[in-house]
Amino acid sequence: MQAKLKLSLSLSAEPSADDLAFAQQLGVQAVYIWVRPEQRDAAFLTALRQKVEDAGIELYMVGNMNVGKSPRIHLALPGRDEDIAAFQQFVRNLGQAGIGVTTFTWEPDQVWSSAPTESRGARARHVDLDDLAKQPYTHGRAYEEDELWDNFNYFMERIIPVAEDAGVRLALHPNDPPAYVPLGGVPCLIKNAAAYRRAFEIADSPALGMEFCMGCWLEGGEGFGDILEGIREFQADGRILIVHFRNVSAPLPVFTETFLDNGYMDMYQIMKTLVETGYAGTVTLDHTPHFAGDYAKGGGSAYAIGYMRALIERAEAELGG
Fold it and tell me: Is residue 314 part of a domain?
């Protein structure tokens, strides 16, 4: 029987009994957790995995912002080798703890956004590229894209052997937004399908995979590449480790994040393609507009998981799965 994709939920590094019960009640099969620097050791990671598994759920991915989104690594700033060494040890600890996937980006300034707006009456992230492109340098000067690729190559040479030895795969997330102009003086490196192909060629190892962020691909539109063909290509190559499920109002230069059912993409076509290609990794809700008041805490996740479950059932019925 063909393996099926798993619905996943993002939880805190210290999930409460209610958090885990909520995940159980939603019927998700896996969770996705970011840990703090002091929680990167093997003992904490092992205990965290056991706690999640005791609730009948898989701890599929664990990341750490400090090493996974390090500007010192991305821009070859002082302290780069120290951060790479910390990332290497984190990967070793993940392998020792029995956790097989972590994630990272090539975003020295992390996610860029404009002032929030509304989507269907809910507060939502908004991006206006003209506004972002006017922002001052964030690291003192303008960088060239070739510099960033050199830094990526430097990192791959040092992290890939460690990941292979530890049995841990690295999921590379695209730039958000995948802008075709520099932001804060720094070019967006992972901004289209061609950039992923180049990254995989540099790594030359199955240890490097991708976090296929539907939101970023949709933000990039035709400039990023055909999203359904992207799923087919990278799934056939075994590169998709994580799927971020998100919809937006339009491609760049201006977009607002929306609920799954009211962006410009028919998300059923995405889910159908994932099912059709036999993707067996996790699908996780990414950013979402915020429900009002007390409904904000779990409302977005519950709404999205229910919607995604319905899309899966429809796809399986249509495809005879």
Answer: yes
